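Model: You mentioned two targets. I'll fold them one after the other.
Researcher: Yes, keep them separate.
Model: Target one:
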Amino acid sequence: MKKIPVVPKELLVPFVLITFCFALWGFANDITNPLVKAFGTIFNQGAFVSSFVQFAFYGGYCFMAIPAALFIKKYSYKSGILVGLALYATGGLLFIPASLMGLFWPFCAAFFIMTCGLSFLETSANPYILSMGDEETATQRLNLAQAFNPMGTLIGIFVAKDFILAKLNGMSSTERAALPLDEFEAIKMADLAIVRAPYVAICIVLVIVFVMILFKKMPQSETDNHQLNLGDTLKRLFINIRYREGVLAQAFYVGAQITVWTFTIHYGTQVLMDEGMTESKAATESVSFNFYASCLFLVSRFICTFLLKYLKPGSLLMYLAIGAVLLVFPVMFAGGRFGLYSLIGISGCMSLMFPTIYGIALRGVGDDAKIGAAGLVFAIAGGSILPPVQGLLVDNWTLNMSFLMPMVCFMFVALYGYRVHYKYGES
């Protein structure tokens, strides 16, 4: 039997260009995670308020998912990607007035606009990659493209650590609170100028990518159909149990991923402070643990893409989700370095989840994939809702025990993998 290529040769250049967009939104996601802690210090506010960075960031995904899908349905995947890049760049430029105003909420607005663009990108790029070849290799192809997302993640973490956190004023929240108002404001404005620089710089890259995709002839999806039969499409998707439960699984997974990566900074800071390090030094150094987690995530993504040649997606998803659940126990009950390393280890289990849930849920839906993709991007709302909730648990319970939330999320993902493999069956 003739081997089916993961990416046909004639589609290699379009595949590479669209795959680069995966790295671009990985950069945005993970330069942002450490800012929850950073904004808490800069503005002298608690974890709950600071976590509204994530609420605004992932709220943009949620708000724009359906409009993006309708736009893509009417026009094309390429058009959706171009709009996404433009909105992403606009959000980055809005960091200039936000930093000059010196207020927290304008930054949230800039994050929101930015992720309206990311919503367009993800709603377009994921199903576009699925369509670039045979359906039999679609999930493996999406996992390959998604493997480049952590590369952007690593760059985002590196920039956050060395170009933002390392350059911020080293005073702790307590020390800042004791300052006279004018001194506090001067330090805050200087720190916000540091925060804005990388977001403005990424706009240059976005413009270059925008131009390259604009002038490159891109393939049409075999299922391109510009009729907007939204009611019929939603009805078909809703009665598709694999898709419906996939949206829920994606919401729980994204919520788990964002809470794990956001509060790894807090967890690492606590561990390092317990070992005698100052708060500001510990906060900067703890970003390294997110870097290690992302490296593991990247390596695991390639390993899992290889394993999908031999294992069914649902079964592999189930086993890795169970592994994530088991790793949460030391985080909650052991603490210290052992708990921290277990927290990092969770990233190895998470690497497969997003693209695999995505591929499973959209398998066989045909042209409904354009609207179906919106539901799976809308599910990223889990990353908007759960971080503030975990922030409340951190402020009012304990940091360690707050990881009960991602544990429950991983349990649902494991259940979805089980049902896909054993109940629905995998062809």
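Model: Target two:
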Amino acid sequence: MGEAYQVLDRALALDGANSLGPLAVAYAREEVEALVASMGWSHQVSADGREVLTEVLANLRLLGCDAGVSFFAPFARAAEEVARAELDLACEADENDRKGPAIVRGVLFGVALAALRRMAREHHLALR
């Protein structure tokens, strides 16, 4: 159990290049870049986001979970849809370019998305 928490802490700290090994991180990074390209996203897409996903993939492999980047393709498509809807709403709401409400909304949307994923998972667990 302690080892699982250490893996989680490493993923959250984004220190995978030191703890996971450069080859594991490099392989995961290549996969993430391929996902970004397959989505047609600009190469300018968040370097931080790409690095977080890289760390997640490398840590999942360390845990013995074979959730490669293809597992995350549906997440990427859903995230794109959610981001589009969020930005459409933000454009309507922020005519005065106020950043505070936009940041709070972004946090709340993230919490809502996590809650919806949790509810969907609970539903499918009950079905199984």
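Researcher: Noted. Anything on target two?
Model: The two ends are 26 Å apart (CA to CA).
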